[in-house]
Specification:
By secondary structure, the protein is of the alpha/beta class. 53% of the residues lie in helices and 8% in strands. The protein has 13 helices and six strands. The protein has a six-stranded mixed beta sheet, sandwiched between helices. Its EC number is 3.6.1.19.
Length: 341
């Protein structure tokens, strides 16, 4: 990424020609608080070193100690737009190190001056000095959760047990958004699910016997993903989704030293999902285990779930779709009743 330059058309002059009335240049330097202070782009360091003056309105700005250590003289000042234009007179360059909130008053003032036509404006540049990497906003979520845990009467009292039901509710709402094809709702529900992860990890930090943090959670899943995808991060080869899944199941069994393919299957999940998961484990492991032969609706549903899994259908999703169609039929029937004289 580069910088944005807004050039005043009247400010150009032949190279090497002195012009005491030259309008100069203003560089608004922005930084991300999610990047360690001092890690600035090379164009940013060039602009800082070439500037005639560097200003910053925030005396506690995290970049200031590093700029001064690098020999950059920074004046702690918050100039008005008019004062900034005057400071650039004679062709001088002024760099403004923006605060975390940006410089809305200053930029609005510069815009008003430019729009008035009464002032010869300097060149205006917006120069991002550091950029957020993908996932950087997760740091904000962690910080917000830290503060809520410390200051919010509701958040500070929650436990893993008290939050468990919300994890289930949010997961179901996420599934509903996916099945409805609602992109806005999907984004929101993903955030709600992510909140549950960060919330539980924050609570876990406070455990006196066995604390762990969200970094431990993230580090664990990163290590797991790398280990279970040797065809991506190692020398193994997998050309089909089935081969990937087979390796995943085998590696997982080796890691956890399991003696049965049924280990690790949560028995408290919905019945159809449980039946399909067991059938999937059996099929993936290449086991020949016939379904128990007995009468009753439960065994009939078990057979249907196993059949659905074998055909690549999620029985829970299929039943939800059928149930929604049934709901729509009920609503339509009720409307007909209401509209009948």
């Amino acid at each position: 990424m580069g910088y944005v330059r807004i050039v005043n058309a009247t400010s150009s002059r032949p190279a090497g020609t002195p012009d005491q009335a030259a309008p100069g240049r203003v560089v608004l330097l922005t930084t991300s608080h999610r990047v360690a202070p001092g890690l600035l782009s090379w164009p940013a360091w060039q602009a800082l070193r070439d500037a005639d003056r560097v200003l910053c309105a925030d005396g506690a700005h995290p970049q200031l100690p590093y700029l001064r250590e690098a020999g950059i003289a920074v004046d702690e000042a918050a100039p008005t737009a008019e004062e900034l234009v005057d400071a650039c007179a004679g062709g001088r360059t002024v760099v403004v190190v923006a605060t975390g909130e940006g410089e809305p008053a200053l930029t609005d003032g510069l815009a008003r001056l430019a729009g008035s036509g009464r002032v010869r404006m300097p060149e205006l540049e917006l120069l991002p000095a550091s950029y957020d990497l993908p996932g950087a906003r997760l740091l904000d979520l962690v910080q917000v959760m830290d503060r809520l845990r410390e200051e919010c009467p509701w958040t500070s009292r929650k436990t893993h047990e008290g939050l468990a039901k919300y994890a289930i509710e949010e997961a179901y709402e996420l599934v509903e958004a996916i099945e409805d094809g609602d992109r806005d709702e999907l984004r929101e529900e993903l955030g709600d699910v992510l909140l549950q992860v960060v919330f539980h990890a924050r609570i876990a930090e406070e455990d006196p016997q066995d604390p762990f943090s969200v970094d431990d959670v993230a580090g664990g899943i990163v290590a797991k993903l790398i280990h279970r995808h040797p065809h991506v991060f190692g020398d193994a080869t997998a050309t089909t989704p089935e081969e990937v899944k087979e390796h995943w199941v085998r590696t997982k069994a080796e890691e956890k030293q399991r003696t049965s393919v049924t280990e690790g299957v949560p028995l408290h999940q919905p019945g159809l999902a449980l039946a399909a998961k067991l059938a999937s484990r059996v099929r993936t492991a290449g086991l020949d285990v016939p379904l128990p032969a007995s009468e009753g609706i439960g065994y009939e549903l078990l057979a249907l779930a196993a059949r659905a899994e074998a055909e690549g259908t999620d029985p829970e999703a299929a039943l939800r779709a059928a149930a929604r169609a049934y709901r729509d039929a009920i609503v339509a029937h009720e409307e007909r009743i209401r509209s009948t004289p």
